[in-house]
């Protein structure tokens, strides 16, 4: 079958240019300082030092991580029961629910986020409703609440679908066995269902946390100009202030944080599985 | 007790559906609003649709979005299929390295991929525009195609292509008549993912496009800085188109497909 091997060659060249080279460029820019001409550059760690020593940037990074974390937790809290509910439905209903959950994700993310601007405004639907009860108006747009809401709205379908998939893959006889052995409903859930659905939760976390950390259009649309996350800093370094070296350094820091968190979640996932198979 | 629980969870799911669909319904309603307000409905009108269809930049953005998505889907599906089949026959070292690199655009935050490409284009002095956007889309769509085909190839009998060639098929025939039909479900789902990824993309397009070329996402992003209800009209149009697509995609197979699902599932 060796004749088919050649079929990978074009793609190898392609990824070398389109994937590897850009990554190298980011690293190169991150560790250099702009000289006077194009060919003049000097290696430096100044860009990283600048990021770490500036409290403004550290604050932004902390805020990004916090928002992403809150988003992920909310997605699990809402998403898990929802996925559980769907997994317990009859076959026909399951498919309908999956369609209901996935349909909004097919619509452009920017379009869906834009819709929240009108809803959250001071004289928007929510505040009018609250006004009926004599509350408000509460300003929601351009707050962290709005940003988290937008992120939960955009990313929760991924969480639900991942958990749902792992729940439906589960062997139902395991629950029956647990019940036969005298476990009550709660124990059944904590000892059997939850551990077995954990891989789904973990892949859901990666699908929610990662885009949430790096998102820059949701904070821009719902958080307003003053609300800045890491993504916005990178954007402005590249598109407005034009400091590519510093922008590359921030991107590299973010990419490394994400790679580490991916590695950690993967590690948790695999150790969990091996522990389970060992006992 | 059990009934109570069921009612409670149904109410919860009701709220979730409301949460999911409120913005969509809101967009559709306000696209017919007679006033410029995003919060008060002042009567039915089609003026924002008129404005949208009369707006050249909006129509151009729609055009570029569709043409990019179609081209990126076709090219990445073909390239992805060829590569995935090639990879399945490659040595383990090649396989590991290529799939590791292949995972990079999926694992990396989009913005990192985007600035990488931005710098690549500027380093090579390629003028940013439609072509750069299309190349970028092909770049981030192909990994998804490959990833969705590889599992199907893994379940394939390794001797299948050999058998075909023993029976006198050329390698090309063995490929087209034997292997490709076997992995078709993977190719189709890969193409679907590629299309939605390309159609929805904002971050990467935003960084690599230029010269007045933009897609729907970029348009919404730049236009949202001031109140512009024609965005709602455009959104409604997208919602309607996608609903039709999904309806066709879900109803037609349900009507025609009575074949047993492959043993893999």
| Number of DSSP helical runs of chain B | 12
Mean pLDDT of chain B: 86
**Largest interface, Cβ cutoff 8 Å:** A-B, 75 and 77 residues
Counting H and I runs of at least 4 residues, what is the number of helices of chain A?
12
N/C terminus separation of chain A = 42 Å
Oligomer: heterodimer
Q: Biggest sheet of chain A, open or closed, and with what strands and sense?
A: 2 strands, antiparallel
Given the helix and strand composition of chain A, which structural class is it? mainly alpha
Can you say what the CATH homologous superfamily of chain A is?
MetI-like
* Strand line-up in the sheet with most strands of chain A: 1-2
SSE sequence of chain B, one letter per element: HHHHHHHHHHHH
Strand content of chain B: under 5%
Any idea what the CATH architecture of chain A is?
Orthogonal Bundle
Largest sheet of chain B: none
**What is the CATH topology assignment of the domain at 60-236 in chain B?**
MetI-like fold
Tell me the total number of β-strands of chain B: 0
The helical percent of chain B reads over 70%
Low-pLDDT regions of chain B: 259-265
Helix and strand content put the structural class of chain B at mainly alpha
Which residue ranges of chain A are poorly predicted, with pLDDT under 50 across at least 5 consecutive positions? 274-279
Relevant terms:
heterodimer; A: 279 residues; mainly alpha; MetI-like fold; two-stranded antiparallel sheet; 12 helices; 2% strand; globular; disordered C terminus; B: 265 residues; 77% helix
Explained architecture:
The complex is a heterodimer of chains A (279) and B (265). Chain A has a single domain, classed as MetI-like fold (Orthogonal Bundle), CATH 1.10.3720.10. In chain A, 77% of the residues lie in helices and 2% in strands. Chain A has helices spanning 9-30, 46-53, 55-87, 91-106, 109-120, 125-132, 144-169, 172-180, 185-214, 217-223, 230-239, 244-278, and strands at 32-34, 41-43. Chain A is globular and about 75 Å long. Chain B contains 12 helices and no strands. In chain B, helix 3 (56-88) runs parallel beside helix 6. The longest helix of chain B has 33 residues, at 56-88. Chains A and B meet through helix 1, helix 3, helix 4, helix 5 and helix 9 of A and helix 1, helix 3, helix 4, helix 5 and helix 6 of B.
